[in-house]
Amino acid sequence: MASSKGNGTNLRKWVITGGVLFLTVAVGACGSGSDLQEVTRKAVVGTTAAQSYRETGTTSRTSGGDTVTLYAEGEYAAPDRYRVKVRNETGSWDECIQIGDQSYVLTPNEADWPGGERRESCVVLPIAEELAVLHHLVDFEVLPDQQIGGVDCVHYRANVDVEAWTAKWEAGAEYPPPPQVVNLMKGQSMGVELWVGKDDYFVRQMKTEARLLEYDLVTGQESWVTQNTTTRFYDFNEPIAIEPPAPEPSGVGD
Q1: Could you tell me the CA-to-CA distances from 151 to 35, 135, 214, 254 in Å, in that order?
Q2: Given 184, 187, 240, 247, which is the most exposed site by the fewest CB atoms within 10 A?
């Protein structure tokens, strides 16, 4: 997932990464929660192990009767090359390229390069963090198998154990989070729908539906927000070239 700070449109979070392990054992028939827990575990390992892949996603966020939709596309090439582009409904977009510890932010009107004077930067987080919520699934429900991108998939849904997920996040935080933040996290609900490749354990598609409380730091008011995200993964372990943008034009960043 990528995030940016500074000028231009705000690049929302998006995730891309990879690893070294491959799983090729076929997924058999799954009829119980324990079966699907094992499928989920192997899917997380297999997907985070991919040496390259692409993904597309749509996120719709509704608050106070207003809905904002973001569209994202990204790609990863091992060991440390990422590209993410996010656009909104008006066509405004941000693009983040990260290569090692260098990041590049591109927008329709300007670009930022390492060493420039602008304050905008971006960070791409590992996909393991996007899939971390899958470690806390309960109440599994088997759904009819489907194909995603021509790949036969096990299809199921589950709920997130928000208490366990929050406790894990709280224990791993660098600094103790404010109790109010912890309570807000515990107050949310989330469901996950998954499509996992039968022959490779790759997560081919993931859909999350969340309802959460949002706290306004200015007014001190809380309001309910719904957020639905659908992400599709494809081109696993295919050749993907991610290069820095063209050299900075003369005068940019002065």
Answers
A1: 20, 24, 38, 50
A2: 247
Are 142 and 30 a contacting pair, CB within 8 Å? yes
State whether the Cα torsion 61-67-68-70 is positive or negative. Answer: positive
pLDDT tens per residue across span 47-57: 999 999 999 99
Full-model pTM:
0.79
Q: Mind listing the pLDDT tens digit for each residue in 176-191? A: 877 777 777 777 899 9
What kind of architecture, by CATH, is found in domain 2-234?
Clam (2.50)
CB neighbours of 165 closer than 8 A, spacing ≥ 6? 133, 136, 185
Judge whether 206 and 231 are in contact, CB under 8 Å.
yes
Residue with tokens 């991919």: 50
What are the two backbone dihedrals, phi and then psi, of residue 125, each rounded to the nearest 5 degrees?
Answer: -90, 155
SS3 state at 172: helix
Contacts of 140 (CB under 8 A, 6+ apart): 32, 33, 36, 37, 156, 157, 158
Query: How is the chain split into domains, by residue range?
Result: 2-234
Could you tell me where the beta strands, DSSP code E, fall in the chain?
2-5, 52-63, 66-77, 81-88, 93-99, 102-106, 111-112, 121-124, 137-148, 151-160, 189-197, 203-215, 222-234
Question: Which residue, 203, 186, 212, 195, is CA-closest to 157?
Answer: 195
